[in-house]
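Here is the promised in-class demo. Please do not try to memorize the tokens; focus on the logic of going from shape to residues.
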């Protein structure tokens, strides 16, 4: 049977198209060197390729994260390094200003320079880089540190986050950059030494001035975190009271949430006790107005070797008749203006120093380092003056006042002679009780004073006492109270009556926050409209920041306070060590990013190799397939041309 020409044509065209498609596919494989270009090439293989491409894209982002982290860490390290340089400059400056050769004017001038240092350190703490403030934590779009008052700053506020920035370096791994200002510039530990190891307190049992006991205690030196400091002070106070006072057991508590210290007793004493803590200045001796005229002397320093021997002072006014030493041609020092030590008229000379024995015991009490060779006629003079030093720990606990008192609850102002109590107007006292064993606080209790006219304070006190005890018996801890009137001070004192045993650790009178504050008896009792507590005294927030130290140093320089300068110097040391440690930490994190970067590169290479194995074509094989496809296509063209030779008959 004759095959129609049209069928032959269609078959030939179809086969020729297939050969052409094979040729194009082979040609694309050679040109792209890819075995798989689309899902149709190899669905399973394309799925592997897409997965690998996704992983490679993630690695690219991780590398971007690491690069940014490295830039931030470099910037942070440079800023911290510059900050440590500034702290070193401040310490060198302060070291010179604690010397007797430094004058008040020099310290005053240095106080002005402290503002320059403050501004510099603040600028460094507000370092901005790569889209954010480096030390702001993960809240880094606004300056993390600002003055409390731009015109007259007295403190610095931290506006950043307490959480450090974290970056993603793998699907399930993040690292912290460790550049949070809340950690870097605020100390968790404090050094206790001779500049801040004293605490003086007065125990008053309320039985007259003759029974007051003043106790001075010394805290063991060392480095403490806040909880440890609270514990060591608590132990120091209790031990000192046991040995010198009334045997009170003290409680010093650090509140981590509020960042405050509180001082009180545990309530176990037989009687309520009024205790006053004072930052008392103790007597000491100072050498001032050191003056030399030797041309060879450089950076003269004077040191007190044995302070107990300095008990005679040069005449006032200062520098009127300073103790003076004049170098002679005999190689000795002539002594003049001896204030009363009985010094010889001349003393032997050392090459570049003067050793002064004040009490003739053969030991040096004062050393003057001249740092140079004296010449005949050179003089060295200085004043020995009475001074005072303040080594109280109270400021470090957040008690800025020189006196801290916790006592039995006593009226704020004098009370009247008679009292007219009207129901619903001035007859209520809202209060809470805290049990002795534990910190359980009662619900709000409300004492209602019987409405009446009381002709004297004693009868009114008895009515208030009865009201308090009734409220405690009904809903509280059945505590007994004592409300006593003191006619000498025209005041009321409210305390727990411990004759039958003590039950309460403390109580709080809610004159302001109570639900019946509008009808409070606070005014009649002589109290301001504020809540009153018989419990511990709480200090201000303790930051122990680098800013606090520089501001304190500035104030000490302004006040010519050598002790304050030395105290600040010790804290500068602590800040310096902390920043140096932080620089090491930043460096360690940076080294960690280098390791991460290497891991990312290795992973990238592995994935790229895997993708190449799945997707890339074998070049030699692809070329052979291309040539084969070309030959087949050319043969197909030739055959089709021969088969498809048409005549007029094909259309009949």
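The designed amino acids, position by position:
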């Amino acid at each position: 049977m004759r095959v129609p020409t049209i069928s032959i044509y269609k078959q030939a065209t179809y086969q020729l198209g297939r050969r052409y498609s094979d040729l194009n596919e082979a040609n694309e494989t050679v040109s792209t060197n890819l075995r798989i270009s689309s899902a149709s090439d190899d669905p399973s293989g394309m799925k592997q390729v897409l997965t690998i491409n996704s992983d490679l894209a993630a690695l690219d982002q991780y590398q971007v994260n690491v690069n940014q982290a490295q830039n931030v860490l470099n910037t942070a390290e440079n800023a911290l390094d510059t900050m440590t340089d500034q702290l070193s400059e401040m310490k060198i400056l302060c070291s010179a200003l604690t010397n007797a050769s430094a004058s008040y004017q020099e310290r005053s001038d240095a106080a002005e320079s402290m503002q320059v240092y403050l501004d510099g350190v603040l600028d460094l703490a507000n370092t901005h880089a790569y889209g954010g403030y480096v030390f702001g934590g993960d809240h880094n779009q606004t300056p993390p540190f600002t003055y409390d008052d731009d015109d007259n700053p007295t403190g610095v506020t931290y506006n950043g986050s307490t959480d450090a920035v974290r970056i993603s370096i793998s699907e399930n791994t993040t690292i912290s950059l460790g550049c949070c200002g809340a950690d870097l510039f605020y100390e968790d530990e404090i050094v206790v030494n001779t500049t801040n190891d004293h605490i003086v307190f007065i125990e008053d049992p309320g039985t007259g001035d003759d029974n007051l006991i003043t106790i001075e205690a010394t805290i063991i030196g060392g480095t403490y975190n806040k909880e440890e400091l609270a514990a060591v002070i608590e132990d120091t106070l209790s031990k000192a009271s046991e040995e010198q006072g009334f045997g009170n057991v003290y409680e010093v508590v650090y509140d981590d949430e509020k960042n405050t210290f509180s001082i009180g007793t545990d309530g176990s004493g037989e009687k309520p006790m009024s205790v006053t803590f004072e930052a008392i200045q103790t007597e000491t001796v100072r050498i001032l107005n050191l003056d030399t005229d030797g041309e060879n002397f450089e950076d003269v320093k004077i040191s007190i070797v044995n302070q107990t021997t300095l008990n005679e002072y040069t005449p006032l006014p200062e520098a009127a008749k300073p103790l003076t030493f004049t170098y002679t041609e005999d190689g000795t020092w002539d002594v003049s203006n001896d204030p009363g030590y009985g010094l010889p008229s001349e003393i032997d000379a050392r090459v570049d120093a003067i050793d002064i024995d004040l009490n003739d015991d053969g030991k040096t009490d004062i050393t003057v380092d001249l740092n140079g060779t004296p010449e005949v006629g050179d003089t060295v003079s200085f004043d020995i003056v009475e001074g005072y030093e303040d080594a109280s720990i109270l400021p470090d606990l957040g008690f800025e006042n020189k006196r801290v008192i916790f006592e039995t609850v006593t009226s704020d102002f004098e009370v009247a002679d008679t009292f007219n109590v009207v129901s619903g107007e001035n007859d209520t006292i809202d209060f809470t009780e805290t049990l002795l064993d534990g910190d359980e606080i009662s619900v709000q209790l409300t004492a209602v004073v019987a409405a009446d006219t009381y002709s004297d304070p004693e009868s009114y006190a008895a009515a208030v006492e009865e009201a308090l005890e009734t409220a405690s018996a009904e809903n509280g801890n059945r505590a007994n109270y004592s409300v006593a009137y003191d006619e000498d001070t025209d005041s009321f004192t409210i305390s727990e009556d411990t004759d039958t045993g003590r039950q309460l650790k403390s109580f709080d009178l809610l004159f302001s926050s109570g639900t019946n504050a509008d009808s409070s008896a606070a005014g009649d009792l002589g109290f301001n409209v504020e809540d009153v507590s018989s419990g511990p005294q709480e200090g201000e927030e303790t930051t122990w920041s680098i800013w606090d130290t520089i501001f304190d140093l500035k104030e000490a320089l302004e006040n010519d306070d050598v002790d304050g300068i030395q105290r600040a110097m010790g804290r500068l040391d602590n800040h310096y060590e902390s920043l140096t440690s932080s620089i090491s930490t930043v460096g360690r994190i940076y080294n960690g990013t280098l390791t991460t970067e290497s891991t990312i590169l290795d992973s990238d290479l592995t994935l790229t190799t895997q993708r190449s194995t799945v997707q890339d074509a074998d070049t030699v094989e692809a070329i052979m397939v291309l040539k084969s496809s070309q030959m087949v296509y050319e043969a197909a063209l030739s055959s089709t041309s021969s088969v498809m030779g048409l005549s007029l008959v094909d259309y009949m």
